[in-house]
Specification:
Blueprint: H1 5-11, E1 15-24, E2 32-41, H2 47-59, E3 64-72
Antiparallel strand pairs: 1-2, 1-3
C-alpha cells in the first residue's frame, strides 16, 4: 500500500494553504466576488499559489483585488507538555 500524494507532500514540508481571493466581477467591475482556494503549498514562497494566481491574471477575466492567505503545517513535531499531577481512574 502506498501513501497518498497529499501525505507525501506533507512529509516533504508542504502545509495546507487557504487563500481568499477577492476579484472584480467582469460584468460589474464595481462589485467584488470572493473565491476560496485551498491546496498544499510551501511556506513562505507559496509556489503553487503563485502559479494559480499567474494563471488567473492571464487567463480569467476577473481582475484580482486582494488575496488573504492562511497556512498550517499539518505534520510537525509533537508538542509535549509536562503534567503537574496524575489522576488514576478505576
Amino acid at each position: 500500500m502506498t501513501a497518498s500524494i497529499e501525505f507525501r507532500k506533507q512529509l516533504e514540508g508542504y502545509g495546507l494553504t487557504t487563500a481568499e481571493i477577492l476579484y472584480h466581477m467582469p460584468d460589474h467591475p464595481a462589485l467584488l466576488q470572493s473565491y476560496i482556494w485551498q491546496e498544499y503549498d510551501l511556506f513562505p514562497k507559496f509556489p503553487v499559489l503563485h502559479k494559480f494566481l499567474d494563471f488567473w491574471s492571464h487567463k480569467l477575466d476577473g481582475m484580482l483585488h486582494s488575496v488573504t492567505v492562511a497556512h498550517a503545517r499539518l505534520i510537525r513535531p509533537a508538542e509535549l507538555k509536562a503534567v503537574g499531577a496524575s489522576f488514576k481512574l478505576n
